[in-house]
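Appendix B, record 7
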Amino acid sequence: MPSENNAIVSVQNLSVRRNGREIISNIHADIAAGEIAAVIGPNGAGKSTLIQAILGLLPYSGTVRILGRNPRESLRDIGYVPQRFSFDNKNFPLTVLEFLRLSAHPGADIPLALREVEMEHNQHRKLGELSGGQLQRVLIAQAIVNQPKLLVLDEPTSGIDLEGEKDFYEIIRHQNQDHGVTVLMVSHEVNMVYAYATQVICLNKNLFCFGRPKDAITKEVLEKLYGSDVSMTEHHHHHA
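Structure tokens (predicted):
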């Protein structure tokens, strides 16, 4: 298919089974360069499973191409922020700077990555001393330090307060608009998706919608995704 050539991420017929159960089935999506694509859907919809399959971290059937190659061959061009990053806080000895040095390629601009997420003043603090929001910023810095073409984030704002969440999306938008990074992210925040995403993938085991948020996220789609009580998806209301 010709679309595969200009798509940064191309997914065809993607299914994931676990213990004989289909977690997600028959997903198709093409994400072009420069998009901010958001995956939305209820808990248990398979959003993290989709992300992990696309990155080649889970066995799947179907076809996934990242930059036209097998995902594992493109890892150098991908920055990834996982959903949960857990460590023993008190006994984690690394500072922010040391943590970034672990993943930076030779010649990577670590000070720039720290500035991008406004964490340069905390670079000598230990990871265990950071707040949840600060830790997320460090994880983004780690994901962008090697200047990836694709940034993949799995529900990155869970556990961050509203103000921090908005800052966080601004960091992502800056990466997208000023550094040309294509973004694929899982979000539980429909209002933020409206405000920031250029493309949306509505998932509940199957694909419910795919397209521009304004067109794709209809009341009917939200009801299918979240049940008739759609208000639960709008618990954070932002005034632009």
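Remarks on this record: The chain is about 30% helix and 25% strand. The beta strands are 7-18, 21-32, 36-40, 61-66, 78-81, 150-154, 182-186, 199-204, 206-211.
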